[in-house]
Amino acid sequence: MSSYPVGTAPVKAEFILAPSSLPVDDDAAEGGSSNTRRQRDDEGAGDGEDGPAHKKVKLTGAQKKKLAREEKKKQRGSNKGRRWTKVRDELELCWKFANNNSCEFGSECRFTHDIPAYLAQKPRDIYFPSPSDLTDSPPFAKIPETGSEESDSSVDFRTRCPVFDDVGICRLGVKCRFLGGHARKADDGTIQLVEDETKKVDGINATTEVNFATPNILKLLRTKKYPFPVTDAYLKEVKDAAEEQERTKEVAEPPAGGDAEVVVQAPEPEPDSTMAEASEPSPVKSSLDEAAAQVDTPDVPPRFAEKRRLTWSDKTYLGPLTTVGNLPFRRLCVDYGADITCGEMGLASSFLSGSKEEWSLVRRHRSEKMFGVQLAGSKPALLVPTAEVIAREFSSGVDFVDLNCGCPIDLVFRTGSGSALLDAPGKLGKILIGMNRALGDIPLTVKLRTGVKEGRNTSHKLMPRISAEWNVAAMTLHGRTRQQRYTKLADWNYIKECVDAVRAREADEDLPRIPIFGGGDCFSSQDYWSAVDQSGVDGVMIARGALIKPWIFTEIKEHREWDISSRERLDLIRKYAEYGLDHFGTDTAGVNTARRYLCEALSFQYRYVPLGLLEQLPGRINDRAPLFRGRDELETLLASGDSRDWVKISEMFLGPAPESWSFTPKHKSNAYGSEEGQG
Ligand SMILES: Cc1cc2nc3c(=O)[nH]c(=O)nc-3n(C[C@H](O)[C@H](O)[C@H](O)COP(=O)(O)O)c2cc1C
Q1: pTM strictly above 0.90
Q2: Distance (Å, rounded) from C-alpha 571 to C-alpha 138?
């Protein structure tokens, strides 16, 4: 057996094409919620970053080092040119007409009502392959030849519409890009929509999504008319307690000479003016909030008494993942064994301002058995009312709410949210108590990092307090500080220290144990079970491991490492495309949004090194793989870091990418050539 440098994936020599590939940057990929993402996408648009230049000039040692540093810096960070535009039909059909309904706008409607004209310019239907169409040699997904008599029609009656197949009806009607799957040609030559009554009934129960925020809820939030009785009472209680404390202080320590002066304590770090939270007025007065940050906590409800009991043990947990942990991806992970799923982080301020995009983050697929919504925010006046809306509107569709105390990115941290809460325990306590009250019987959980600064871990002090004093239902600790980048391994010894500290306090106070999940670098069944054994956690939250190999949950449950075949992986991609269409829609816009998220998923999945290619098992998450070829052509294609190949893969299921569509990966693409993917 050959020896491999530390940090290099031990790929068998016969598969290696070139000794190294470019590093990836997961810090860049993690950054951003829908809001921060939007902001960042706009930041750098059009800055014309070029790919690394490889000029053949002689450099001194110092120059080489400088260049390497600059290259590294360039490759780090999010891709600033990311900008997403919806792709639309050239001629836009009225959606009511697309479903055989009448339109109240008549000839005033800004969309066409001329179905024959629409169909005449519509590109031909996309053929959606079935599992039996997939092979490991080109073209990988077989598309049947088109008969000459039909080739000029946009409707392909051989295709199937994945949405119609599931629920017996396609809401996009004539606009569907898989129209032939639910249409027939009438005797007069016109296209008629069909429905499947049996599936329609089954579908309503089986495959729909829940947790839709109605336009009325959004409007009430936008106009600040949404009622918040629990929040108002809680914040008043906090304010009264603050005032009482202030009075007691004054009596105890009268200021020297003259009238008593109110001592103004240093405020919590103010949100940066560019931050979303700062730009949106808080629904409740900020003075209440400042008070909340400074006084003793109001009454703590009895531990767990009023909360739903959830079972956390022996369950696999897919962590929250901004952008990539979308509903179709979670649905895919559930298929492969994920028991607990959590939505992408949403900003409390954006929820309260009625942002449709933010509220879409609470959507849940019915297959998600235990589902949580993750919130980020800096203060009780934002987080408590958000929790109140969730409890009132989605009580039956949300199993738990998780508070993000780990997000490292500047945009969030500078507002006092995410990992900034690790250094503000007083405020955190008030947030947790208020959220718990507002959530009613919905359990509250917390996700933390080990601390803010490298070398200064704080979670061993904070976690016992969270467990014993603030009534949370479960905690997850990601074993890294805010400052630590993904290139350094998570500190599982410290995770054990924190678990021990929590258990000691629980034992001292005779409290029931709360479930603790650890997180960081888990990439195999072996990683999972040894982390559980050695650290004493109840389970390991899986994040990048699932992005790179969504079948990791099967491995964990079956205590095995799965040498999955390329064809099986392509079928997984097919499923993801199907779930994307189901969620985003099967019209032109939906297909290309599904394509975008599919490419985003492939920007992680290509990093998987097939087990059969490795000298030593299992694979490790942070190992850099050399450029390698697979055991068949499909395996080689799936290992490509070139974003153009991801687009090519998307085309097998979603048809040709339109010219107006482009894809810029979240982390800079490790293209096989040296250029960034053009896709
Ligand atoms: C692309 C990406 C997005 C993430 N988004 C979130 C998020 O929205 N909320 C959160 O608490 N953590 C988020 N994380 C952190 C992960 O949930 C997890 O804690 C971390 O990646 C460590 O686990 P791992 O080493 O198994 O990846 C994200 C991580 C990545 C890579």
Answers
A1: no
A2: 15
